[in-house]
């Protein structure tokens, strides 16, 4: 923290009055306000380092620009040149491990925007140095990592937030208020869909359903390919992987479900109080899939047992342009959209943000605003870094269980389970942290790290 520069001399009377006031204040002001117990005082700026800042991570850094950006790390300095130039005082790195070693005492928090396969290793490395962590969705690459990262954050007592910006939106709060007001009764089914990896009918965000390229072009100048591969199995560089299009590859990404699932499920899970509950079964069907990339389109089903006053709930995911059929009570003309949600209750349904049918909508009337709103997704993280009594709403205790559920869906899409899942559903036991009826599925809960990247 910078020293205060006084503009004039202080009289003896002023000094004694100030000292007395300060002594009294210290006795009643909570420790976190003074920066005790590891908290950052509100008067200080959080010293932030970015890891993977050439894409979404750079956007995250810009949203936190009110704080002090002290270091920036990216394996591709060409891709990251824009954000580097915006923060010329920030020290530059390619290897986040070196950055954390060299700047340990100068960093309070890290922002992680790397490809999915590096999320957990980077998060764990920072957490174990007691750094606060903001990590982009879907938090991790594997089911095990999602639990592991949340457990480590809790153990080391750091502030956390997953990059799920929509969780702080007015739409999320209104959905929670609609469902919690009983507007459609008890929830029975949840349907969520996206056009990704497609982009509308004729374009795509990234390719899936393809095999590994055979040519081996030269690694572009400025890119450290070994660091980009990180904990994943080594393979030659190819522009089919970097930048951005890594999402569709099993070794690096988590497909459309990992990309959009946490965004779309988070508000519904919060509204239904489903976060922290785990499915009893997971099942999936898809178009052609292989060992390299996710399928072009898929449907995943999770079945949850009843809990509290909630009946059993079925959750469905659709991607690649697939979506549920239009319910009979939704009139023609009401758009389902390429990306959407359908929440089915015992007394009606919500399509996106509209209650159906019209009779039920009129019966419910205007639903009051009852929930305290967010100060903003990124502000939540800043506040959590400064005050441990103000956890961010998508902290890892919330994000970890959500990511586990989402990533279980990807396990069910593996090509090695294609034939087996024509005969069974996968049965999950959270206490044992495994599928109880498929050893084949359990091998996909976690993955070995490449030598040199073990944690």
How would you describe the overall organization of this protein?
The protein has 455 residues and is α/β, with parallel strands linked by helices. It folds into two domains: 47-165, Rossmann fold, CATH 3.40.50; 168-376 and 394-442, Dihydrodipicolinate Reductase, domain 2 (2-Layer Sandwich), CATH 3.30.360. It has helices spanning 12-28, 31-34, 56-63, 81-86, 96-102, 119-127, 143-156, 170-180, 225-229, 255-272, 358-364, 377-386, 396-411, 439-442, and strands at residues 47-51, 68-73, 91-93, 109-112, 132-136, 160-163, 187-193, 198-199, 203-204, 281-286, 298-304, 313-319, 340-345, 348-351, 354-356, 426-429, 434-435. The strands form three sheets. Strands 15-14-13-7-12-11-10-16-17 form a nine-stranded mixed β-sheet. It has a six-stranded parallel β-sheet with strand order 3-2-1-4-5-6, with helices on both faces. The chain has a two-stranded antiparallel sheet with strand order 8-9. The relative contact order is 0.15. Mean pLDDT is 92; it is low at 1-29.
Brief account:
It contains 14 helices and 17 strands. The chain is an alpha/beta fold.
Terminal residue distance = 33 Å
Stretches where pLDDT falls below 50 for ≥5 residues? Answer: 1-29
> What characterizes the major β-sheet?
9 strands, mixed
Structural shape:
globular
What is the CA-atom radius of gyration, in angstroms? 24 Å
Total number of β-strand segments?
17
**Whole-number total of structural domains:** 2
Mean pLDDT: 92
CATH topology heading of the largest domain: Dihydrodipicolinate Reductase, domain 2
Could you give the order of strands across the largest sheet?
Answer: 15-14-13-7-12-11-10-16-17
CATH C-level of the largest domain: Alpha Beta
- Please estimate the helix content: 25-40%
CATH architecture descriptor name of the largest domain = 2-Layer Sandwich
- Please indicate the percent range of residues in DSSP E strands (runs of 2 or more): 15-25%
Number of helices: 14
Q: What structural category characterises the helix and strand content?
A: alpha/beta
């Amino acid at each position: 923290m910078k020293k205060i520069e006084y503009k004039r001399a202080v009289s003896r009377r002023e000094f004694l009055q100030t000292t007395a006031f300060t002594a009294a204040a210290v006795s009643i002001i909570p420790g976190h306000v003074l920066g005790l117990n590891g908290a950052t005082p509100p008067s200080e700026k959080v010293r932030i380092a970015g890891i993977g800042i050439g894409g979404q991570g750079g956007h995250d850094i810009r949203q936190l620009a009110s704080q002090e950006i002290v270091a920036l790390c990216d394996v591709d300095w060409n891709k990251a040149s824009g954000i580097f130039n915006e923060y010329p005082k920030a020290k530059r790195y390619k290897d986040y491990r070196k950055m954390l070693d060299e700047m340990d005492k100068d960093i309070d928090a890290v922002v992680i925007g790397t490809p999915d396969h590096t999320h957990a290793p980077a998060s764990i490395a920072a957490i174990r140095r007691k750094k606060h962590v903001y990590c982009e969705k879907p938090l991790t690459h594997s089911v095990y990592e999602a639990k592991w990262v949340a457990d480590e954050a809790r153990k080391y007592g750091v502030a956390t937030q997953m990059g799920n910006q929509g969780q702080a939106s007015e739409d999320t709060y209104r959905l929670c208020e609609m469902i919690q007001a009983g507007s459609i009764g008890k929830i029975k089914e949840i349907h969520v869909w996206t056009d990704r990896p497609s982009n509308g009918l004729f374009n795509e965000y990234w390719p899936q359903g393809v095999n590994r390229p055979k040519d081996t072009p030269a690694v572009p100048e400025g890119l450290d390919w070994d660091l980009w591969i990180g904990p994943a199995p080594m393979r030659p560089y190819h522009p089919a992987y970097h930048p951005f299009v890594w999402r569709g590859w099993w070794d690096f990404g988590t497909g459309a479900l990992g990309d959009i699932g946490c965004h779309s499920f988070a508000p519904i899970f919060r509204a239904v109080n489903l976060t922290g509950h785990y499915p009893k079964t997971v099942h999936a069907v898809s178009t052609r899939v292989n060992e390299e990339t996710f399928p072009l389109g898929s449907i995943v089903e999770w079945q949850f047992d009843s809990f509290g006053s909630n009946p059993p709930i079925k959750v469905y995911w659709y991607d690649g342009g697939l979506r549920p059929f239009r319910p009979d009570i939704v009139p023609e003309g009401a758009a389902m959209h390429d990306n959407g949600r359908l929440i089915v209750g015992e007394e009606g349904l919500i399509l996106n943000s509209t209650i159906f049918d019209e009779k039920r909508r009129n019966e419910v009337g205007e639903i009051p605003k009852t929930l305290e709103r967010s100060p903003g997704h990124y502000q939540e993280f800043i506040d959590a870094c400064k005050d441990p009594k103000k956890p961010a709403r998508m902290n890892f205790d919330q994000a970890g269980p959500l990511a586990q559920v989402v990533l279980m869906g990807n396990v069910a899409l593996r090509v090695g389970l294609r034939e087996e899942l024509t005969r069974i559903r996968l049965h999950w036991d959270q206490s044992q942290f495994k599928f109880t009826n498929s050893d084949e599925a359990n091998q996909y809960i976690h993955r070995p790290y490449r030598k040199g990247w073990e944690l």
